[in-house]
Amino acid sequence: MPFRPDVEKHQKLIEELVDIFRQQDYKLIGADGITGVPRVKKLHNDGYGDQENKSPDVYAYDEQRKRFIIGEAKTGDGDFETEHSLTEYNVFLDQFDTATGLQALLYVIVPSSKVPEFNMLITHYIHRDYWQSIVLVSSKKFVG
Prior knowledge:
Elements: H1 7-23, E1 27-31, E2 58-62, E3 67-73, H2 83-93, E4 105-111, H3 115-125, E5 134-139
Parallel strand pairs: 3-4, 4-5
Antiparallel strand pairs: 1-2, 2-3
């Protein structure tokens, strides 16, 4: 079955993630569809998947830890394992701050009922060395 994104659900997940970033006092650099915040620029792809640069849904900076924070929203409606998504995970986990050398943290927000499915995906597709750089967020607004 081809992936058909639920644009409204995806946007609500982005908004929820932006709220979480604001609560954490992360400095928002870019976010898709958020009033007053610029769109996110594409991040360089070093040769993963479809070879295309990718834009995360949210891009921020943690001043306290001196670390970039990348946010991605997934509805769980067929968008976890597409070639596009798998490339995104690799591109986003391959981002390092040139000043500090720290790897960016990747926050992925999914509906709460989809957390186990996403966890299985991560352990299957993502090398274990990167697991500590992934923060899985269970949506409080969407169950499924």
